[in-house]
UniProtKB/TrEMBL annotation:
A Pfam family hit: DDE_Tnp_1_2
Superkingdom assignment: Bacteria
InterPro entries associated with the record: Tnp_DDE_dom (IPR025668)
Annotated protein name in UniProt: Transposase
PANTHER family associated with the record: PHP DOMAIN PROTEIN, TRANSPOSASE
Domain Transposase DDE: 10-58
């Protein structure tokens, strides 16, 4: 979590925010996550875990 300084009134680039945006970009490649047609939330959650699996395995190397 990146803390924002309250004493600055103009735009300041927050470090490491690109990591979250990159992860969302990788998740957008999975078609099943683009539409949420599941009845149960646990099915949507399991689809998200399956989509995250290649990213997590890549980080282990």
């Amino acid at each position: 979590m990146v803390k924002r300084s309250d004493d600055k009134n103009r735009f300041v680039l927050l470090p490491r925010r690109w990591v979250v945006e990159r992860s969302f970009g990788w998740l957008s490649f999975h078609r099943r996550l683009s539409k949420d047609d599941e009845k149960l939330t646990r099915n949507s959650e399991s689809a998200l875990y399956i989509a995250m699996l290649p990213m997590m395995l890549r980080r282990l190397n």
